[in-house]
Amino acid sequence: MIKIGIIGVGTVGESVANILENNSDIIEARAGKKIVVKHGVVNNINKKRNVNISISNSADDILDDSEIDIVVELMGGVEEPYKIVKKALSNGKSVVTANKALLAYHRYELQELAGHIPFSYEASTAGGIPIIGALRNGLSANHIESIMGIMNGTTNYMLTKMINEGALYDDILKESQELGYAEADPTFDVGGFDASHKLLILASIAYGIDAKPEDILIEGIENISDIDVDFAKEFGYEIKLLGIAKKIGNGVELRVHPTMIPQSSMIAKVDGVMNAVSVVGDCVGETMYYGAGAGGDATASAVISDIIDIVRGNNAPMLGYNKPLESGLELLSSDEIISKYYLRLEVSDESGVLASISSALGELNISIETMLQKTSSTPNRANLLLSTHLSKEKDINNAISKLSKLSSVYGDIAMIRIEA
Ligand code: HSE
Fold first, then answer.
1. Residues 201 and 263 in one domain
2. Ligand 1 pocket mutation pick from 74, 121, 124, 152 by most atoms within 8 angstroms of CB
3. Residue 192 φ/ψ region, left for φ over 0, alpha for ψ in the -120 to 50 degree band, beta for the rest
């Protein structure tokens, strides 16, 4: 019999304990041993939990228990779980975590500390989708060319409801929290940080890139307006918050931002809390993974798969490699991104304005693909919506600052990248 301890018995922790009990027959058949939860640890022992396990509020009740083989860390946060997980490893216990923030900041130290002790984190990225297993094992023969996907269920749920049903941002964010999809602090979801943590984890397995969230381009969905959504629909795009990792020469681009993607692409059809990740490998070509990206049972499914894997005796290196992957791969600056862009400007509705804007763009070698004028709620002004041909991020940023200075342009200029 294998005994586990769960540190953090919230939505996911409750599901882990309940599924281990309810599905114990198939879990034992697959793992080869019975797996039981010996103990759970929570911050607030007065809160009622929907589980049938002993509970206390001291992590040491698990970490110092020699009968417990596997520590399951589901508490969230970064520094506190880091201390706990380090102690678990130094006590020789295997670790399973769903904590993407912990890994976004400490994955390399943890890989070093874990050595040959099993350390698994399938649930950290894309909820119930086995994307870590796919990258660590299934695609391990490939050089990875790109990873692109919807890695945050909350924002996908929000964008779907806002775009398809015209739901209001605040109402739908509240609903995501009630459904248990959102982070304790939902700005992690809407600001793109949660997706960035997941992207960094995937990029480590694929490329061995050691970057922190602060090192990469992260934009959230807070500023998407109805008018952007209407433009996207009119020109055949969906708007999705994407995490993108691309190998370009000896560099790797890592970025998270709202993206216009053609309605015909598979990722564009992924709605609600579902996540989807496309991975392109040099041998296999494109592969695609789809499933629930958040929610107690879906995430617990991934946590338990890690536990079963450890009980079976699998102890692949934490990030999937024993020595450096591809030498010399570097994180590219976001200035180097090449993309198509959508821009939205509020301008004076008078002659000569369009000419001044297209000439300002032309001076920076930015070529316009489509342009649309919509009425503004302010008299004598218009909203100008345009998309560009492929351009460099640095040039677009220069263009935005140049256009903002024109007397015929009012307020901030909105920009969304287009992944065609
Ligand atoms: N808040 C996260 C999401 C939970 O919405 O995807 C799963 O990581």
1. yes
2. 152
3. left
CATH number for position 109? 3.40.50.720
Q: Which two tokens stand for residue 18?
A: 């309940």
CA–centroid distance, residue 154 to ligand 1 (Å): 6
Evaluate if residue 328 carries a pLDDT over 80. no
Query: 105: part of which helix (H) or strand (E)?
Result: helix 100-114
pTM above 0.90, yes or no: yes
Of the three residues 129, 148, 163, the one that is the final residue of a domain is: 129
Concerning whether 340 is annotated as a catalytic residue, the answer is: no
CATH of the domain at 209: 3.30.360.10
Question: How does DSSP assign 401-419, residue by residue?
Answer: HHHHTSTTEEEEEEEEEE-
Q: Are residues 136 and 111 in the same domain?
A: no
Contact 281, 142 (CB under 8 A): yes
Range of the domain at 377: 335-418
In this predicted model, what pLDDT tens digit does every residue of 74-115 receive, in sequence order? 999 999 999 999 999 999 999 999 999 999 999 999 999 999
pLDDT in tens, 5-59: 999 999 999 999 999 999 999 999 999 999 999 999 999 999 999 999 999 999 9
Do 215 and 160 fall into the same domain?
A: yes
Distance 293 CA to ligand 1 centre (A): 6
